[in-house]
Amino acid sequence: xxxxxxxxxxxxxxxxxxxxxxxxxxxxxxxxxxxxxxxxxxxxxxxxxxxxxxxxxxxxxxxxxxxxxxxxxxxxxxxxxxxxxxxxxxxxxxxxxxxxxxxxxxxxxxxxxxxxxxxxxxxxxxxxxxxxxxxxxxxx
Length: 140
Hints:
This protein is mostly helical. The chain is built from 8 helices and no strands.
């Protein structure tokens, strides 16, 4: 429980440090809760279903799945923020190359830009996304 862990929190003086600590404690509590055997084997359905449940990945993957979903949510939120701040063409240059996997030349042809301009746009968007994600992680 969070109340048992509050004694371990130490203020760093940075804004959002309590939220970051609370997020970490909550994440760990959730992972521990998911690891409990009664949470994993509470389904009913006979031996075929039991065999299927036993083929699921090991418990360690729950932590990595949680981290992956957290990173995905942070990217979505940061994308919303950054997309509103920049020109649509700049965003599309990033999206084509960074997300869809197009080459800078392909994206440049599609968007009516030079390949160099596409690379610059992608770098600027990536840098801004990283900054927004860092802000979101600090605030949460």
